[in-house]
UniProtKB/TrEMBL annotation:
Residue ranges the record marks as coiled coil: 368-395
Region ranges (Disordered): 1-25, 196-243
Source species, domain of life: Eukaryota
Protein name (database record): Uncharacterized protein
Ranges of biased composition (kind: Basic and acidic residues): 196-213
The entry's keywords: Coiled coil
Length: 439
């Protein structure tokens, strides 16, 4: 006796002996859904949809696969495979870790991090020596006499000096690397200049030969007068004062920058020579008194302060002027966006002079889009100028903290000043690290 195979599959699926109980999606035990094997085919790999999360991880939906065992219509050979979530490396790092890695990857970031660590250890040593910190640290060192407490705190002091010497070695290595790079750059520039000069001489020789061979032309050509030459050259007659102010600003900025760099580099050079000569290690093991080259380094740093303050004052004034100009551009863009009649007149004038095929029904839409684009550009320029002003103000505060210790050390060389040195170093390095993280 023959029967319909589809009915046999349906009966086999409804049979309790062939259909075991499985755990449902929400944790409840119930009859498993047993679809027909003829109607269910696992999707090919090429057709499986993949989803990319915002953190970079690739997520694939669940796939229905057939194990190939069991009778047709049996639900035991149908398995649901859910892929595991594998977060990417970029998502597992986190924003704080990326910021720290970005800061420490630069030369300025490493130097400021070492300066912060050295200043913190020096601050800890000065605080414990003067009984400034509160228990439980004070309870361990407070009852001991001053000499014994100084011996106990000696490792902290020596560790701070080791970090300071490491920072000096970093500075020395950076100078050596920059010197080698500059030497290679100068050599390449000289070779390029020499080759350009040879090419120019050859071209001049060929031009002179051509002029000797060619017959002299008796026809004289009159060159037309170009009335737009001053406008194209950038020397517009309407703004001579602004151009003069800009040129003077560039001259003063370059002069103050050169003075600051020369004096600052000379100060660091004296400090490095003293460290390599061993004089700094000798006086630092006894007390924090600066003699010889260390004293000269302090005075050179003191002389570098006035041009540094003048340079930042010029940069701050220029940045504030940029803020005012950007604010005026924003207001002008807002006025143009709010005045459609003026915009229509401007577009019509452009169409008349350029001959562009602008249809009148499309002029308001094009005008509105251009006004929005001008407004967005003006707002972006304003935000950039305001950010520059804030950055310059924080840099000026960092210079002021460094100047506090430098002036105090120059005026009172025989007085102990660990606390002032550590506080000024911590504040200055934290400000600079914050600026590097925000950049």
């Amino acid at each position: 006796m023959t029967s319909d195979p589809s009915q046999m599959d349906i009966k086999r699926a409804e049979s309790p002996s062939r259909q075991p109980a499985t755990l449902g999606m929400f944790g409840s035990s119930g009859p498993a859904i047993a679809p027909l094997r003829a109607n269910i085919q696992p999707p090919p790999i090429s057709e499986v949809t993949t989803y990319v999360r915002t953190d970079g991880a690739v997520f694939m939906p669940a796939q229905v696969t057939d194990t190939g065992h069991g009778a047709e219509g049996d639900s035991s050979n149908i398995r649901l495979r859910v892929p595991r979530y594998s977060p990417s490396k970029k998502a597992s790092e986190g924003p704080l870790a990326r910021t720290i890695i970005k800061t420490l990857s630069s030369e300025a970031g490493r130097e400021n991090a070492l300066q912060l660590l050295q200043s913190f250890l020096l601050f800890l040593h000065a605080s414990l020596s003067r009984r400034i910190l509160v228990p439980p640290i004070l309870s361990l060192l407070g009852p001991s006499p001053r000499g014994k407490r100084a011996k106990l705190l000696r490792p902290i002091y020596l560790l701070s000096e080791v970090i300071a010497n490491t920072r000096r070695l970093f500075v020395l290595g950076r100078w050596g690397f920059e010197g080698v790079c500059n030497a290679f750059a100068v050599t390449a520039e000289l070779d390029k200049t020499r080759s350009d000069q040879n090419i120019k001489e050859k071209s001049q020789t060929l031009q002179s030969l051509k002029e000797d061979i060619a017959e002299p032309s008796s026809a004289s050509s009159e060159e037309p007068i170009d009335h737009d030459a001053p406008a194209r050259s950038g020397h517009a007659p309407g703004r001579p004062r602004a151009a003069r102010q800009k040129s003077m600003f560039g001259v003063y900025r370059q002069a103050f920058d050169i003075m600051t760099r020369i004096l600052g580099t000379a100060s660091e050079f004296c400090d490095l020579i003293a460290f390599l000569g061993g004089t700094s290690s000798a006086w630092r093991t006894r007390s924090r008194r600066r003699y010889g080259l260390e004293r000269l380094s302090i005075w050179l740093g003191l002389l570098a302060l006035p041009p540094a303050f003048a340079l930042h004052r010029l940069l701050l004034a220029r940045a504030r002027q940029d803020v005012r100009d950007a604010h005026a551009q924003v207001l002008q863009a807002i006025d143009q966006a709010d005045d459609p009649a003026a915009n229509d007149a401007r577009v019509a004038g452009a169409q008349f002079f350029t001959g562009a095929g602008i249809s009148f029904p499309k002029m308001p839409a094009a005008n509105a889009s251009s006004s929005r684009l001008d407004l967005a550009r003006a707002e972006a320029k304003l935000l950039k100028a305001q950010r520059q002003v804030r950055t310059l103000k924080w840099e000026q505060r960092a210079i002021f903290t460094d100047a506090t210790f430098t002036v105090y050390e120059a005026l009172r060389p025989d007085k102990e000043k660990q606390f002032v040195e550590s506080l000024s170093g911590m504040l200055g390095s934290m400000i600079r690290i914050g600026l590097l993280c925000a950049a």
